[in-house]
């Protein structure tokens, strides 16, 4: 599909705070400075040394063996030869886990089941969130609670499977969610042994001012706990609650959520729905194949309308902010960058789909016109979205 490269890219912002993103240009850079605000997305897509270059072998991507969402001790390891699988393998960390001597809470979650009238407690809520995620309808950070993002994921699953769209879980939906016996047996909570890389991940204190942020080496995580929560697509407080006595040292085994494998089918059309604050992904036959909770614009700075196309895709962008006095500050790449770990620029100037430094607030915040996803959903979409894919705002 395309060759993935980590590049430093400046996202130029004029007159906007870093709370939201609506940039004037995207410029490829070989250093930490930008001197030309007129550089556009074309500068990246035409520069083979800096962009993700598509191989234009769509038939291979569509005919290669699909990657199952069912994992067996390893999540996010793609052995398929499809171009999307190769791309995702470069973007996402391989997660090795086991289920030996799981704690009681993990077994209760993994064995949870639902019948009509059953209250969705945190154990069942975690299992439900896992089943939705594994069938490629994202719930945001897994926290075990029934909330707006879990409801939206359920409704997208219902839509994909031709079920009645409801506000609450029903028997028809639960039967469809659990119809794959192998997927149902997959553990939602698993054991993970911490590595030296996990506990020694680069961290920093993120200052409040844009100028101070621009002086950092990178917009790293603020703690190893934050890094682990993002690695396993979890709410930080839930991860901490499951491992209240953990010291988070190398070699220690902790309890984590098992993300499974993301969608590997190429995405040729995306719909950013303003009403539901959801991104829906479709294949070239217009089948709904994935959905992601999103923040889509705001009342003050709405997203555009109509259809646009993908023009540039960047992993690990940096971000250039221009203040009211024309002062420029370049914020370095990192997961806590204002646009997170991904920038997917559109043909509509200044707009794009990007990640977020605050996954817990997806669908609960405002953006300055762009579409925000969690970093892991943005990476999953980056790995499968096609060049020139249509992005429609509704």
How would you summarize what this structure contains?
The protein is 25% helix and 22% strand.
Provide an overview of this structure:
With 394 residues, the protein is α+β, with helices and mostly antiparallel strands. The protein has a domain at 2-57 and 266-393: L,D-transpeptidase catalytic domain-like (Beta Barrel), CATH 2.40.440.10. It has helices at 41-45, 58-63, 83-91, 104-110, 122-134, 148-160, 171-177, 181-185, 196-199, 210-214, 224-231, 236-242, 375-382, and strands at residues 2-3, 8-14, 25-29, 53-54, 74-75, 95-96, 189-193, 253-257, 267-273, 278-282, 288-293, 295-296, 306-315, 319-322, 328-331, 342-346, 352-354, 371-372, 385-393. The strands form five sheets. Strands 11-10-9-19-13-16-17-18-12 form a nine-stranded mixed beta sheet, with helices on both faces. A four-stranded mixed beta sheet has the order 3-2-14-15.
Strands of the biggest beta sheet: in what spatial order?
11-10-9-19-13-16-17-18-12
**Which of globular, elongated, flat, extended, rod-shaped describes the shape?**
globular
Give the overall average pLDDT: 84
Structural class: alpha+beta
Distance linking N and C termini: 27 Å
Per CATH, the superfamily of the domain at 2-57 and 266-393 is: L,D-transpeptidase catalytic domain-like
Please count the beta strands (DSSP E, at least 2 residues each): 19
Main pleated sheet: 9 strands, mixed
Strand content: 15-25%
Broad CATH class of the domain at 2-57 and 266-393: Mainly Beta
Q: What's the number of helices?
A: 13
